[in-house]
Amino acid sequence: MNTPEVVEKFAKIMLERDIKPEIECYDVGHINLALRLLERGLLKEPLRLSLVMGVIGGIPATPKNLVYMVGCLPPNARWQVITVVRAQFEMATMGMILGGDIRVGMEDNIYLAKGVLAKSNAELVAKVVRIAKELNKEIATPNEARKLLGLSSKHA
User: Fold this and answer.
1) Collapsing DSSP states into helix, strand and coil, what is residue 119?
2) Which of 55, 92, 143, 153 could be cross-linked to 102 through a Cys-Cys bond (beta carbons 3.0 to 4.6 Å apart)?
3) Domains, in order of start, for the chain
4) How far is Cα of residue 22 from the mean position of the Cα atoms in its chain?
5) DSSP secondary structure string, 9-65?
6) How far is the C-alpha of 93 from the C-alpha of 59, rounded, in Å?
7) Is the overall model pTM greater than 0.70, yes or no?
C-alpha cells in the first residue's frame, strides 16, 4: 500500500538521488497528494503526472472525469492519460486535444479495436500516431521527449 507516509519516504529518496518521478494518479486525491509533496519541497517542477483511468477502484474513464482531473493540475505540469482497456483510444484522443501526452501499449490494452487483438505494441502505437497526425499533433523524438520532461541525457 502506498500510504502518504510511504509515498513521502519514496519522494525523499528520489529527490536525494535526482530521480524524476512519474506520478500515477488513479483519482483526484493522488493529484492532491502530489501537490502537497510539491509544497513541502519533496517534488520538483515540472511535475510529471500520469492520469490513470478505468482501473477498478480508481476514477472511471470518462471525458468529464478527464477534464476534471486536468483542471486540478498545476499549470506547468506535464501529464499523460493512461486508460486501461476499452476506452484507450478515445481517452488518448481526448488527452491529445486537451494538450496532454498519451501512452498506449499492451500493458493497458490488448485490443486494436473492439474484438480485434493487437499483434504487438507497435500496432497500438501506429494507431495512436495516425490519430495524432489527423489532429495535427507532433510526435516527439526520444531526445525531444527527454527535454520536454526535464530529463538529462544521463537518464537515457
Assistant:
1) coil
2) 92
3) 4-155 (3.20.20.70)
4) 8
5) HHHHHHHHTT----EEESSHHHHHHHHHHHHTTSS-SSPEEEEEES-TTS----HHH
6) 18
7) yes
pLDDT digits (tens, 9 = 90+) for 48-90: 999 999 999 999 999 999 999 999 999 889 999 999 978 999 9
Q: Which residues are 82's β-sheet partners?
A: 52
86 close to 61: Cβ distance less than 8 angstroms: yes
17 band by pLDDT with thresholds 50, 70 and 90: very high
CA-closest candidate to residue 139, choices 101, 94, 109: 101
Cα distance between the two ends of the chain: 29
Omega before 74 cis (within 30°)? no
Kindly state the helix (H) or strand (E) to which residue 81 belongs, with its residue range.
Answer: strand 78-83
